[in-house]
Amino acid sequence: MKIIKLLFKNSFRHKLRTTLTILGIAIAVTAFGFLRTVVTAWYAGVEASSPNRLITRNSVSFIFPLPYAYKERIERIPGVETVAYMNWFQGVYIDKSQFFARMAVDMEASLKAYPEFIVPPEQKEILLRERNACVVGADLAVQYGFEIGDVIPIEGDIYPGEWEFVVRAIYQPRDKTVDGTQMWFHWEYLDERMKQDMPGRAGDVGWYVIRISNPADAARISEAVDEQFKNSRAETKTETEAAFQQGFIAGTGLIIQLLNFLSFIIIGIIMLVLGNTMIMSARERTKEYAVLKTLGFSGGRLISLIAGESLIISVLGAAAGLLLTLPLVEMFSLFVPKSWFPIFYVEPVTYVLAGTSAVLVGIAAALFPIQRAVKTSIVDGLRFVG
Amino acid sequence: MANTLIEIQNISKSYRRDSMQIPVLRDISLTVPDGEFLGLMGPSGSGKTTLLNLIAGIDKPNKGKIVVGGMDVASLNETALAKWRARHVGFIFQFYNLIPVLTAYENVELPLLLTKLSKDQRKKHVETALQVVGLADRMQHYPKQLSGGQEQRVAIARAIATDPTLLVADEPTGDLDKQSAEEILTLLERLNKEFKKTIVMVTHDPRAAEKAHTVRHLDKGELQ
Ligand SMILES: Nc1ncnc2c1ncn2[C@@H]1O[C@H](COP(=O)(O)OP(=O)(O)OP(=O)(O)O)[C@@H](O)[C@H]1O
Ligand SMILES: [Mg+2]
């Protein structure tokens, strides 16, 4: 026998209590993992943003357009690699609840600006050639069963009318952090219709995406761009993609903060659940610890015995919780359309966080029982009755 | 005349309860020779357990000196005292105090875990100790699967597993029926005679006291 055996036997002395404690921790850790995953999903846009990209929008508001003629002038700024423009098209596909990003883009430049959207070369060729062609993300294709050649009918709202796009390419997101649920079609196709139906809106672009060769130049180039269009009909505001995304989710920031806060409250709950169990068992064993000390067990050994027991329970609980998190997240993403949370997966850092918290909580929950066991004199311990 | 194993000189012990000091032992002196089987008797609250605890090094006197086997016990710090106990003293309690989640074998092995003995050597010690107490066939039993008398025999095996010089027993038969008490006393007698263990035993039971070579009486913290 080793001390470690006594440790395990101690942990499961009250099978029901230990099981319930482990279960409680598991549920809390699952909730923690799930909440963190939701928070990550919200921030995914920011995290997935490239430091190589700047976004230029109308300085008044995102909803005001910019003239497409800015493109050439931005391209002339040193350090700029590619300039693409995009419009938020929106529209209604099937019904209003079917939400995914639908955008009119400067196709060739946009694909260059977003190398993380991987389009097979033969599809790309046709995509660039056909004026009503569109490209959809692989996840979107799975969700709606889109195949090459399919026609996507969309009822315009921001840009009224009946629209039809032909799927000519399906892009693969480069990795899990890349949104695979966007739909892009040619800006020219949109602009042609605008010229006919609403000439006042022809030539408008929603925003520019600027790919720069060196992220260190971001501040200088942003300034240079905004300087270019100072005192013009449409002044610009240029910022990194990350800053832009952050602004975009700023409105939901409070909810996120709340979720974040909640996930740490959960850790506190785990702490209480485990602390309670540990205090109960250490109290019941007051006499036993005194007997061990009588036999010559040192304070250090008692500490490892108690801390070890606490750690066994907390780590088992955390492990069970994390094992439950994965299927829960999977199930959630089955029932919730991919396009709501384009990037939804359990980040490795969530495992690390939950694991570390479990260890810390395990240690913290043992502190009080340890101090009690060490402080209580043998004589008092032996005289202790319930 | 045998060598002196325990030499107690003018010890006093009091406990603090709230702001009051309650004297428990007053100016006690006692000499116990090696190989002795000493019985300590006295009314409840007279300080028997307290004296035993001082001899065994799990408590310290406020005044006076205790030398056991040449070691000035009261002067040792906690850690050194713990090591000394593990090496030299075997404890037998009234309520056995076995660890309920460990088998008889594991309970007896417990104090051996603190020694440098290898697993095989520990096994030999445990088996020998359990044979001596006549429970070689109950090694894998848990305390709750044993009778009170058997539990106390396991506790005795635990106390002798490390082969200590001194055994202290606090009312070892106090919770047992006549028959089992008799068995335990015979066992202690044997340990004293055959294995040359010095035994200090606190008891209320006159039959138990009969087995001792010497009986001392405590009354209100004073040795008669
Ligand atoms: N750790 C302690 N803290 C406070 N008071 C104590 C402590 N240990 C013993 N006492 C007190 O000291 C006195 C003697 O106690 P002790 O346990 O030595 O008596 P005893 O002779 O063993 O009695 P019993 O036959 O009932 O076991 C009692 O009044 C008891 O309440
Ligand atoms: Mg007593």
Characterize the structure shown.
The complex is a heterodimer of chains A (386) and B (224). Chain A has 386 residues and is of the alpha+beta class. Chain A has 2 domains: 2-44 and 252-383, no CATH class; 60-234, no CATH class. Chain A contains 14 helices and 12 strands. In chain A, the strands form 2 sheets. In chain A, strands 1, 3, 4, 5, 6, 7, 8, 9, 11 and 12 form a 10-stranded mixed beta sheet that branches. In chain A, strands 2-10 form a two-stranded antiparallel ribbon. In chain A, strand 7 and strand 8 form a beta hairpin. The model of chain A has no long low-confidence stretch (mean pLDDT 89). By secondary structure, chain B is an alpha/beta fold. Chain B has a domain at 37-57 and 89-223: Rossmann fold. Chain B is 33% helix and 28% strand. Chain B has 7 helices and 10 strands. Chain B has helices at 48-56, 78-88, 104-109, 119-132, 148-160, 178-193, 206-211, and strands at residues 4-17, 20-33, 37-41, 63-68, 71-72, 89-92, 166-170, 198-202, 214-219, 222-223. In chain B, helix 4 crosses helix 5 and helix 5 (148-160) runs parallel beside helix 6. The chains are: A alpha+beta (386), B alpha/beta (224). The interface between A and B is medium-sized, with 23 and 26 residues. The complex binds adenosine-5'-triphosphate and magnesium ion (MG). Magnesium ion is lined by residues 48-49, 170 of chain B.
